[in-house]
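Q&A log
Question type: sequence-to-structure
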Amino acid sequence: MSTQTTLDCINKVQLRGSIVHKHRAEGWLVIALAVSVTPESRDFPKIYWFGEGIDQIDAEFNVGDRAEITGRLRTSKTYPATTIAGETIAPTAGWFETKVDPTIEYKQDFNEVLVRGEFIRTYKPSDGLAVITLKLINDGYTYFPQFTCFGRHAERAEKIKEGESVSLVARVQTKKRETNNDTQYYQSIVCRNIRVTK
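Response status: OK
Response body:
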C-alpha cells in the first residue's frame, strides 16, 4: 500500500455563481452558491468558513452577489459527510454589470472538484453506481471524502485496488427530498472522470 504525502495529494474545489443563502454562527459561516453549469441543472453547494476572516467575508458578501470561491474537501470524525471548507472568495461581475459596462467580462458559472489521493474502498449499492472513498492528506490533516460514480466511471472504480493513487475530476451536486412535511437537502461529489495515476 502506498503512503500519500502532502506533495502527492491534490484537494481543490473551484466554484463560481450567485450567493443564494448565508448563515452566520459562533466561529463559522456558511454560504450557499447557485451554480448553473448547464441549462438543465442548477446546484447549490454549501461552503463553510472557519476562524479568521469570517467577519470580513460576512460584511463584504451578501445574498445576490456573484462570487468565485476556492476551497477543499473535508471530513471529520464527528461529521463524516464530505463538506467544502472555503479558502478564498472574490467578487465577480454579474450579467447586468457586463451589459452596462462592456469593458467588464462576464464569467460563466463554474463547478469543479479536482483531487488526487489514495484509493481506500468501493461501495456498490447497485449496477452502474459506485461510491468510492479516497484518503487525502493536506497540511498535516487526513480526510476521507466520498465520491459518487455512475456508468463507465463506476465500472472503472470497481477495478481500482486499495492503495493505488487515483486522480479524479468531479462536480458538487445537490438534491432535495420532500418527506413528511420536511425538506432534506443532500450534497454529494459526483465523478466526471477517474484515472489511476502513478
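Response note: The chain has one domain: 10-197.
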